[in-house]
Automatic annotation (TrEMBL):
Record key words, sorted: Membrane, Transmembrane, Transmembrane helix
Molecular-function annotations in GO: sigma factor antagonist activity
Organism: Pedobacter caeni
Short name of one Pfam family: FecR_C
Cross-referenced InterPro entries: FecR, FecR_C, Ferrdict_sens_TM
Protein FecR C-terminal domain segment(s): 308-376
Domain of life, source organism: Bacteria
Domain FecR protein stretches: 170-266
Keyword Transmembrane found: yes
Identification of the protein by name: FecR family protein
Length: 378
């Protein structure tokens, strides 16, 4: 990949226009950067060596540290008054060669989230999916519920059973957990941390496929013209026939955001109804229940599903909400909160200390970790 191709890749990721193949390529470079060992010392002074390494990155010589195209990224972010976190991490790791594993060991207990969730069956039985063995977990209303080798929860209709009531299941992820579900109609659901999805064991005999969500989930809905798929949250209902979309409806967020990647969806609050097309998002203000339609950063909305944080013009509160959910931490603020906006991409399977040190090196915040509490200071 030459310099121009690499800069175009960075541009596409930054603009939210990257394809799945481009995202995979970028993530490969990003992981290679984060996992690489400290560069060997040379006879040059630290400032000269740092400049050379940055120049090599800009020129596309990315074999050793293939993550940043600083010329392109900094130009875009400087204009937008953003701070690119990965640069802070880069500078910290390079200019602090004395910081070895013992520095990160201080926070060894703060590990990234993983595949973990709890399933509550229609009869009230609760199953810890993290510990459950691969294979069949239960059978309700003619539907077999199992856990596959990839850790996904799978519903498969085995017998058509008539029932005078609808059995509901609930899958719930804690902070620091996420999970994937394959519903009996073929719909795939990815559930983010601190989220809950309630749904019928079978959609047979219903006039729609209705589920209820708190938190955040990404849906790939199986097409069925006769049975629309509906996602109900506290203030709205999203109706689709077959499409790919993301709904973010956390209780501690000021708005509910629905982002459409493919197909079309109808967002209904009871007072206002809006139709979304691919590449659009609907932000529902919880206070006045007004929906605002805008162009979406599609890659950002599903970054969590693909295993990374993506910050674009985000406040420190925006960032720390995501960090707190994924690392299962409580967040406290001491002093004035920074009004600056931040941007960057960071792998979700990395040590929290690297992310926070990148933020700290912007000069806008300081932090400390006490147990399972992270304190953000000015």
């Amino acid at each position: 990949m030459n310099r121009e191709e690499y800069q175009q890749l960075i541009q596409n990721v930054s603009d939210g226009k990257a394809t799945d193949a481009e995202l995979a390529l970028y993530n490969r470079y990003f992981h290679a950067y984060q996992n690489a060992q400290e560069w060997e010392e040379s006879e040059m002074g630290p400032q000269q060596e740092l400049k050379l390494k940055l120049d090599q990155l800009v020129l596309g010589q990315i074999r050793v540290k293939p993550v940043l195209s600083l010329q392109n990224i900094f130009l875009k972010i400087a204009v937008a008054a953003l701070v690119f976190l990965a640069v802070g991490i880069f500078l910290y790791r390079y200019t602090h060669p004395d910081v070895k594993e013992n520095e990160y060991a201080k926070h060894a207990a703060i590990v990234p989230g993983s595949n973990k969730a709890y399933l509550t069956l229609g009869n009230g039985k609760r199953i810890v999916l993290t510990d459950a063995a691969i294979g069949q977990l239960a059978k309700e209303a003619g539907v077999e519920i199992s856990k596959d080798r990839d850790g996904q929860l799978v519903y498969a209709i085995k017998d058509q059973v008539a029932s005078d009531r609808t059995l509901l299941n609930t899958i719930e992820t804690p902070k620091g957990g996420r999970y994937q579900v394959l519903l009996p109609d073929g719909t795939k659901v990815w559930l983010n941390a601190a989220s809950k999805l309630t749904y019928p064991v079978s959609f047979t005999g219903n006039d729609s496929r209705k589920v209820e969500l708190t938190g955040e989930a990404y849906f790939e809905v199986a097409k069925n013209d006769r049975l629309p798929f509906k996602v109900k949250t506290v203030f709205q209902e999203v109706e689709v026939l077959g499409t790919h979309f993301n709904v973010m409806a956390y209780a501690d967020e000021k708005m509910i955001r629905t982002t459409l990647l493919e197909g079309s969806v109808k967002v209904n609050t009871g007072h206002q109804q809006s139709l979304l097309y691919p590449g659009q998002q609907a932000d529902l203000n919880k206070e006045n229940q007004h929906i605002r339609i805008s162009t979406a950063l599609k890659n950002k909305s599903v970054a969590w599903k693909n295993g990374y944080f993506m910050f674009t013009d985000d406040t420190i509160e925006d960032i720390m909400k995501q960090v707190g959910r994924w690392y299962d931490l409580e967040v406290e603020y001491h002093g004035n909160r920074s009004k600056e906006r931040f941007g960057g991409i960071y792998s979700m399977d990395k040590d929290i200390h690297e992310l926070m040190k990148g933020l700290e090196l912007t000069g806008m915040i300081h932090y400390k970790i006490e147990g399972r509490r992270i304190i953000v200071m000015d």
